[in-house]
From TrEMBL:
Entry membrane topology: Multi-pass membrane protein
Gene3D superfamilies xref list: MFS general substrate transporter like domains
Native source organism of the sequence: Pseudomonas umsongensis
Database matches in InterPro entries: MFS (IPR011701), MFS_dom (IPR020846), MFS_trans_sf (IPR036259)
Pfam families: MFS_1
Residues annotated as domain Major facilitator superfamily (MFS) profile: 29-433
Compartment(s) of residence: Membrane
Keyword annotations of the record: Membrane, Transmembrane, Transmembrane helix, Transport
Primary location: membrane
Membrane-traversing stretches: 25-42, 62-79, 100-120, 126-145, 157-176, 188-210, 252-273, 285-306, 318-337, 343-363, 375-396, 408-431
UniProt protein name: MFS transporter
């Protein structure tokens, strides 16, 4: 962990005692939080695999599935702010425990839906339950870590969510292949039960493991608590601004539109890849699960390489724009590759990895685009616009699939959306508008 800390200049130059303090904090908090991010993502993605079997049992059309996949984000958007306000009142430990227990119970309860409308209601409740989890964790980190550590710690948490995509496919395939009929439950029911129950257990564990703030911990010494308090209190505070001023900032909405386009593509990957793979003529659930992990494996590698290149060259726009265009081109070519399973899998993996990799690339832009006073409010609005894409894009994909019987047209539409986002980025967010260019690095 000390080697990891050497990546952060402010910490690397600190005395060994300070380095030991933050190594201790990271070893205490990060394993739990990364595991929480993994189960969080799995409990979202599992629906895409359950659909392969549950559609016949509950008469779930592709249009209804698209609504169910998207309405999750509506519940999330509506209850995100109240959840964050609640966290400020009662503390992180109670809030994170409450969120994990509720989303775990809703996931398990989804195993017992018998109609499409019940599934849609369950997904809305899941969005309500999860609301505030990601921003709550980000806020929690500000209590424990100085700014020089929080950036890459956040990236590590996002990478943990990506690892869930690698885990969920093979895990779902094994559960649905070997546990059909176990304890009287069908394969898709066992999937929801066995992916939701660990979340409940982890939430209970979090109640005893997490501490709201450093000064309340019994695993830090008095000197270590003093060091953390001193480091965090010495950081310059953000300049205040009225939220109304943030809402009048055009660049925020331009960035929000770009994120909307990116999120439309990445969400389509998350919820429709297993269905797309089965459309290649493959029916074995274990094989589908293994192939569904490929885009996430490629995405993890691409995220690292693209992020490193973007940081080295201090260039954001073309890295992101070209990544989006590669994803869009791969999606558009899928229809032409019908009948060629190997080429279809290659295009699916490349396009999906590009769509997923675009997300961390995008989040290097808002902090550089917005002024310090408006960054916090602007980023929140941009995030909400992205979540709105989760609602609309999946309803659109489901409707197209129901109307045409094919996913290829839906992926063509998502390709056009991603090209639109790339053009908006490159035309309306000029390089000189970003504050972290190479010439400002010196």
């Amino acid at each position: 962990m000390n080697d990891t800390l050497s990546q952060y200049p402010d910490i690397a130059s600190a005395d060994p005692g300070t380095r030991r303090v933050y190594a201790k904090v990271l070893w205490r908090l990060m394993p739990f939080l990364m595991l929480a991010f993994i189960v969080n993502a799995i409990d979202r993605i599992n629906l895409s695999f359950a659909k392969l079997r549950m559609a016949e049992d509950i008469l779930l059309s592709d249009a209804a599935y698209g609504i169910g996949a998207g309405i999750f984000y509506l519940g999330y958007i509506l209850f995100e702010v109240p959840s964050n306000l609640y966290m400020q009142r009662v503390g992180a430990r109670r809030t994170i425990t409450r969120i994990m227990l509720l989303w775990g119970m809703v996931t398990v309860a989804t195993a017992f839906v018998t109609t499409a409308n019940q599934l849609i209601a369950a997904r809305f409740l899941l969005g309500m339950a999860e609301a505030g989890f990601f921003p709550g964790i980000i806020l929690y980190m500000t209590y424990w870590l100085p700014a020089s550590l929080r950036g890459r710690v956040t990236a590590g948490l996002l990478m943990a969510g990506m690892m869930a995509g690698i885990i969920c496919g093979p895990l779902s395939g094994v559960i649905m292949t070997h546990l059909d009929g176990w304890l009287g439950f069908k394969d898709w029911q066992m999937l929801f039960i066995l992916t939701g129950a660990p979340t409940i257990l982890l939430g209970i564990f979090g109640w005893f493991w997490l501490t709201d703030r450093p000064e309340q911990s019994n695993w830090l010494t008095a000197e270590e608590k003093r060091q953390i308090a001193q480091d965090i209190c010495s950081e310059p505070g953000a300049v205040g601004s009225h939220f109304g001023g943030v809402l009048r900032e055009p660049r925020m909405y331009i960035a929000g539109l770009v994120y909307f386009c990116i999120y439309s593509g990445s969400n389509t990957v998350t919820y429709w890849i297993p269905t797309l793979i089965r459309g290649f003529g493959l029916e074995d659930l274990k094989l589908i699960g293994m192939l569904a992990a490929l885009p996430f494996i490629v995405a993890v590698c691409a995220m690292y390489l693209l992020g490193r290149s973007s940081d080295r060259h201090m260039e954001r726009r073309w890295h992101l724009g070209l990544t989006m265009i590669v994803g869009a081109g791969s999606f558009a070519l899928l229809g032409l590759a019908q009948g060629n399973v190997v080429l279809s899998i290659f295009l699916m993996s490349l396009g999906s990895a590009a769509a997923l990799s675009a997300i961390p690339l995008f989040w290097t832009i808002p902090p550089a685009l917005l002024n310090k006073a408006g960054a916090a409010g602007g980023i929140a609005v941009i995030s909400s616009l992205g979540n709105l894409a989760g609602v609309l894009s999946q309803a659109a994909v489901g409707s197209i699939k129901s109307a045409t019987g094919s996913l290829y047209l839906a992926f063509d539409v998502m390709a056009l959306v991603m090209v639109l986002g790339a053009l908006v980025l490159l035309i309306w967010i000029p390089a000189h508008a970003l504050k972290d260019r190479r010439d400002s690095k010196a």
